[in-house]
Design goal:
Elements: H1 2-24, H2 26-48, H3 50-96, H4 99-104, H5 108-160, H6 167-209, E1 231-238, E2 249-256, E3 261-265, H7 272-279, E4 287-292, E5 295-296, H8 302-307, E6 309-312, H9 323-328, H10 336-345, H11 349-354, H12 372-384, E7 390-394, H13 402-416, E8 420-424, E9 436-441, E10 444-449, H14 451-457, H15 460-489, H16 501-513, E11 537-538, H17 547-552, H18 568-573, H19 579-609, H20 615-667, H21 671-674, H22 681-695, H23 701-723, H24 725-732, H25 735-772, H26 774-780, H27 783-837, H28 841-862, H29 865-883, E12 905-913, E13 921-930, E14 935-940, H30 946-953, E15 961-966, E16 969-970, H31 976-981, E17 983-986, H32 997-1002, H33 1012-1021, H34 1025-1029, H35 1048-1060, E18 1066-1070, H36 1078-1091, E19 1096-1100, E20 1112-1117, E21 1120-1125, H37 1127-1133, H38 1136-1143
Helix pairs in contact: 1-3, 1-6, 1-22, 1-25, 2-3, 2-6, 3-5, 3-6, 3-22, 5-6, 5-20, 10-12, 14-15, 19-20, 19-23, 19-28, 20-22, 20-23, 22-25, 22-29, 23-24, 23-28, 24-27, 24-28, 25-27, 25-28, 25-29, 27-28, 33-35, 35-36, 37-38
Length: 1148
């Protein structure tokens, strides 16, 4: 539910705010104008004839009761509708943020269905809202026409029987009441907007008014003058709010002394990370307290407290901006020198300077353009620049290779001095020098001491060390034996502690010169690049990215995409399936459009009736006209209901269809498309939230309004020309001016709509990023900064809105001005025609009343111009997405498939650059082959292309040059869904979805139904079953946002179970056990070894003990393989791999 709440907030910011905007923008002015016209009309009625006016007003409460009922019903239904759209938006956001996982497990169609289920929920409530609105509008017009019938009947009595009124008084009363009633009737659209706005505002205001348990922005609390950094837990008991039945910490008591390094060790789920989160006040304990220098941290100012703390987590969160900006999030007002120093301390400086844009390089959404190790080092630099008093290291070096880990660990050891430091690590070698090691078990601190003391005690720590050392012993013994042998041949090697990049490359080339060049003379023209023919092979062309190459490639410039407004005809095609609804709705709207001109005809007929000399005929005609009013009212009730129902249904079905098609099109794009900053999850979910609903501005209920207005105009003009073509032509001279105003308005607003959309998408990206990564932002105390960034993005649409308001106001005022001038001229000319040409005075009223109603209809039609402008822009962006042909087609049935899938793999001279960074060569001639059932392990420094090769195999990308062969078939020619169905993957940072454990495991195979027994079997193989059965809800336990309710080891085991249940022919393990504690790693490694049987397996690991039994170990550097062979062969070769094992020397 946590993920749902976060993503619903992202959706609500735009969907609900749009509803509120609609309610308080144009509608307030329109409602005020119409309501004051209604008041003025009734006041005129009272002055001219209070008796008749009172009779009419007596009926008014019926309208008021109906309006109140409608407002309540619509507000409730709008809330339900928005709830459905919010859930759908949450699904979209979660899926788009996890696209690689969705694509890897072929979940695109499943996610589209899940998205559609939530849209159906919203659609049902939307249709009900349309029915309520149609019923109320019909009811209101029925009451108005019944009121007319009663008023005319009673008015005729007052004129003919009691002779209190003259026909002139009656005309004044009726004109006042007529105009007032029509304007009151037209407020229904405003009332609908108000009711929808109230429903949306209820959601927004409930969030604004909610009192947070921990107020991150509060200025309250103490700020200590001097901080020593001593932290103490006093009998702390804690459970997560979402799982109150599971106790995470149980009466935890411990002291973390100032200036000391304290390490937390223990199995996954023991409460180590939870204790760290309590120190940061992400949560408060249920019982007991946490103190800093003797002060309960709940009494301290929270922003000040968090400013003292620097944290580096296992899964670092980077923001979609530059490397420099990401480091600057650690502390305000830092200089370039500070940034560079922090990067150097974190061992990030060298790789940053190798990038073309250096510190100005964009890291991508969630740091997606960086490798795991690079992200981790940027996160460490961000923590170091903070100069924290308390340093929290939660698996801070888990994503680093051996080379980087050693250097970063050394840097961390330096910065720890004088600071209180807490370290959580499963790699126990990184914490054995800690001042104090605290062993956790079942939420309690069960032992405390240094490495030597705890080894003697033989408790939790001793067990973990023993298990881990068993895994590394064979590797170390082999390395030691070979090292001793080599020491006899080359005694100087013992003195070598580290290798500089240049000296190591020279030594590598020197060793190659001893080999015969004759083998290679026909392969490579460059004599300095040599390849050995036999295994183990060495490829020294590890410096492919030369300066001259760098100069020929230009950095792409990301420009905001411009779109031309879409043709309405194409928009209507998407509503074609609803043609019966559209037909009946348009028929009803056309009938409704004839009602007001028909009223003008009947009204003028009554005026003419009073001039008849025969009293009996006069009364008979008045009674007949009153009956006609009743009939028109009854017809209007039926047609208004039909119009409301038909267009609500067609509009909701269109909205659902557009959102589904748009979401499906997004999931069908290749992964490279998502790397573009314009297609970040935040921008895409904003587009889904706004585009589909705004397209209704050119379809749905708007068509009904337009048909209504056009019919109104057509019938009115027909009546007018029939009775006096001269007067009609004079009045019509003014209509082009109104049309010109509308056209100008449409042209201007279209431009503003485009600007608004781009700015709002950027704002959506920021809000999505902030809410999704709220823990990181809270830990950095950057809530206010993100609010300021969000506000800054809203300045553009705000300024555009000011300009838009000016344009809209001028055009609307001009149109209204023309109408009043037309009235003035028409009455003057009508009097002339009566006087000079003998035109009957009732005909003048018929013509003028008809033209006035048509003018009102034209004005109403022009008021749809803003929605129409937005609709064309939104539709254009939608069509651009739908029409885009992805480079890798997920939904296509084309491509090769074969039954006897074996799993042999060949990378043939693969060269590759990421689409978003075409000037950085990631792979430059990768060549390696794997036979079915073999295990290939990639070894190398962070960023050398290991994970990229896995992404090529998954066809997230295709190589720029060269090919990837699967069973001899070029991967580009293989059906994408078929290929991915044969591959299972476990990544370093496992992505879990916000559903229960069983659903997450089932996600491993979306091509078939998975039974409960199969889920349990997969969980047992991943060493997960026992933990799951200890939970109150067992397999029905919700894992939370990104698996936030579970420890990292637990998340990783679920991801492994998900891969196992797929029963893949090819298994990809990208640091699959990096998040596990020693005990879990041993058992899961055994499970993975079993799962690898009979499967082709590609392993990426920094912990060399996990790959030493691989059939092929490929050592990578700068996008190529420089050595490959078995562990023994590479150790015997005494090259890069040997040095990595024996000394941790960098691979160059």
């Amino acid at each position: 539910m946590q993920q749902l709440v976060v993503l619903c907030c992202c959706w609500a910011i735009f969907s609900d705010i749009n509803k509120i905007y609609d309610a308080i923008a144009d509608q307030v002015g329109i409602f005020t104008q119409r309501f004051t016209t209604f008041i003025a009309g009734f006041l005129l009625g009272f002055v001219s004839g209070w008796k008749l006016t009172l009779v009419i007003i007596a009926v008014s409460p019926l309208i008021g009761v109906g309006a109140a009922f409608m407002a309540l019903a619509v507000a409730k239904l709008t809330g339900k509708e928005l709830e459905g759209y919010a859930k759908a938006g949450a699904v979209a956001d979660e899926v788009l943020s996890s696209m690689r996982t969705v694509a890897a497990f072929g979940g695109e169609r499943k996610e589209v269905e899940r998205y559609e289920r939530n849209l159906l929920f919203a659609q049902r409530w939307g249709i009900r809202k349309g029915i309520i609105m149609g019923t109320f509008t019909g009811y209101m017009w029925l009451i108005i026409f019944l009121c007319y019938a009663l008023a005319f009947w009673y008015g005729s009595k007052l004129v003919l029987d009691e002779e209190e009124y003259s026909p002139g008084n009656l005309m004044q009363v009726f004109f006042g009441i007529l105009i007032g009633a029509i304007n009151l009737g037209q407020t229904s659209s405003c009332l609908e907007a108000f009711a929808s706005g109230r429903g949306a505002a209820a959601n927004i205001f409930s969030t604004i008014d909610k009192e947070p348990i921990i107020d991150c922005l509060s200025e309250d609390g103490y700020k200590l003058d001097k901080v020593k950094g001593e932290i103490e837990f006093h009998n702390v008991t804690f459970h997560y709010p979402s799982r109150p039945e599971v106790k995470i910490l149980d009466k935890l008591s411990m002291v973390i002394k100032s200036g000391e390094t304290t390490a937390f060790v223990g199995p996954s789920g023991a409460g180590k990370s939870s204790a760290v989160q309590l120190i940061q006040r992400f949560y408060d304990p249920d019982e007991g307290m946490v103190t800093l220098d003797g002060h309960d941290i709940r009494s301290l100012n929270i922003q000040w407290l968090r400013s003292l703390i620097g944290i580096v987590e296992q899964e670092p969160v980077l923001f979609a901006t530059t490397i420099a900006e990401n480091i600057c999030y650690g502390r305000e007002n830092v200089s370039n020198d500070d940034i560079i120093n922090a990067a150097k301390k974190a061992n990030a400086y060298n790789f940053i300077m190798d990038l073309p844009q250096k510190f100005d390089t964009l890291v991508g959404e969630g740091g997606g353009q960086m490798s795991g190790g690079q992200k981790q080092r940027i996160a460490i630099a961000r923590a170091l620049i903070r100069q924290p008093r308390i340093l929290l290291l939660d698996m801070a070096t888990s994503a680093l290779d051996n080379e980087s880990e050693a250097l970063v660990q050394e840097a961390l050891d330096k910065v720890r001095h004088g600071r209180t430091s807490i370290s959580i690590a499963h790699r126990l070698s990184t914490i054995k020098n800690a001042d104090v090691i605290i062993g956790f078990e079942h939420g309690r601190a069960v032992e405390r001491g240094n490495h030597k003391e705890l080894m003697e005690r033989k408790g939790v720590y001793f067990t973990l060390v023993t298990l881990q050392s068993q895994g590394d012993r064979a590797l170390h013994e082999t390395a030691k034996q070979i090292k001793e042998d080599k020491a006899v041949e080359e005694p100087r090697l013992e003195k070598v502690q580290s290798f500089r990049r240049g000296s190591y490359r020279e030594s590598l080339r020197a060793s190659l010169r001893q080999r015969s060049r004759s083998q290679l003379s026909n392969i490579l023209p460059d004599p300095s690049l040599v390849i050995a023919g036999d295994q183990p092979e060495i490829f020294p062309n590890a410096v492919p990215y030369r300066e001259d190459t760098k100069a020929t490639i230009k950095e792409p410039v990301m420009e905001d995409e411009e779109v031309e407004p879409a043709p309405v005809a194409r928009i209507l095609k998407y509503n074609a399936k609803e043609w019966p609804y559209m037909l009946f709705g348009s028929f009803a709207a056309a009938v409704n459009g004839t009602v007001t001109p028909l009223y003008a005809l009947l009204f003028s007929q009554i005026l003419g009736t009073f001039s008849l000399p025969d009293e009996i005929e006069k009364r008979k005609q008045i009674d007949d006209i009153c009956v006609l009013f009743v009939i028109v009212g009854a017809i209007s009730f039926c047609t208004q209901f039909l119009q409301g129902y038909a267009f609500a249904t067609s509009g909701e079905l269109l909205t659902k269809r557009l959102r589904k098609i748009g979401f499906r099109a997004m999931l069908g794009q290749e992964i490279g498309w998502f790397d573009d900053h314009r297609n970040s999850p935040g921008a895409l979910t904003t587009r889904l939230a706004t585009d589909a609903s705004q397209v209704q501005g050119a379809t749905g209920s708007q068509i009904g309004m337009i048909v209504n207005s056009l019919t109104n105009i057509g019938v009115a003009l027909t009546i007018a020309f029939y009775f006096s073509w001269k007067l009609s032509l004079v009045i019509l001279c003014f209509l082009p001016f109104i049309a010109l105003s509308g056209a100008l308005q449409a042209k201007m607003l279209t431009g503003f709509a485009n600007q608004d959309k781009l700015a709002l998408e950027d704002a959506g990206r920021i809000s999505n990023e902030a809410l999704t990564n709220i823990r990181t932002i809270a830990g950095l105390a950057k809530e206010k900064k993100f609010v300021e960034m969000y506000e800054k993005q809203l300045v553009t649409p705000y300024k555009a809105a000011i300009k838009k308001a000016n344009v809209y106001g001028i055009c609307f005022g001009f149109a209204q001005c023309v109408i009043f001038i037309a009235n003035s001229v028409s009455y003057r000319y009508g009097g002339f025609l009566v006087h000079k040409e003998g035109l009957h005075f009732s005909y003048v009223f018929r013509v003028i009343s008809s033209i006035v109603t048509s003018g009102t209809a034209l004005g109403r039609a022009s008021s749809y111009t803003p929605d129409y402008a937005k609709a064309k822009i939104s539709a254009a962006r939608f069509f651009k997405l739908v029409d885009r042909v992805p480079k890798i087609k997920v939904y296509s049935d084309e491509g090769q498939k074969w039954n006897d899938f074996k799993g042999s793999l060949d990378f043939n001279d693969c060269k590759f650059t990421y689409p978003s960074r075409p000037n950085i060569q990631v792979l430059n001639g990768l060549s390696v082959s794997v036979k079915p059932g073999q295990t290939l392990a990639f070894v190398g420094s962070s960023g050398c292309g290991k994970s990229t090769s896995v992404q090529l195999l998954e066809r997230f990308y295709d190589p720029d040059e060269g090919s990837v062969l699967v069973d001899g078939h070029n991967s580009k020619d293989v059906n994408v869904s078929f290929l991915r169905s044969k591959i299972g993957i476990v990544s370093q940072e496992p992505v879990l979805f916000d559903c229960n454990i069983a659903e997450n495991i089932k996600y491993g195979d979306n091509m078939r139904e998975i039974s409960k027994d199969q889920i349990i079997a997969a969980a047992k193989k991943a060493q997960l079953h026992e933990f799951v059965m200890s939970l109150p809800d067992k397999y029905e336990t919700n894992v939370g946002a990104h698996g936030s309710q579970l420890s990292r080891g637990q998340k990783q085991r679920i991801a492994i179970a998900r891969a196992i249940i797929r029963d893949p022919k090819i298994l990809l393990l990208d640091e699959a056990t990096s998040a596990l504690d020693t005990e879990s790693e041993k058992t899961v490694q055994a499970a993975l070894d079993e799962a690898r049987q009979g499967r082709t397996c590609i392993v990426i690991a920094h912990r060399l003990s996990t790959i030493q039994n691989s059939d092929i170990i490929a050592v990578m550097s700068q996008g190529v393989i420089i050595e490959k062979g078995t562990h023994d062969e590479l150790m015997a070769l005494k090259g890069a791999y040997y040095k990595l094992v024996t000394t941790g020397a960098p691979i160059s």
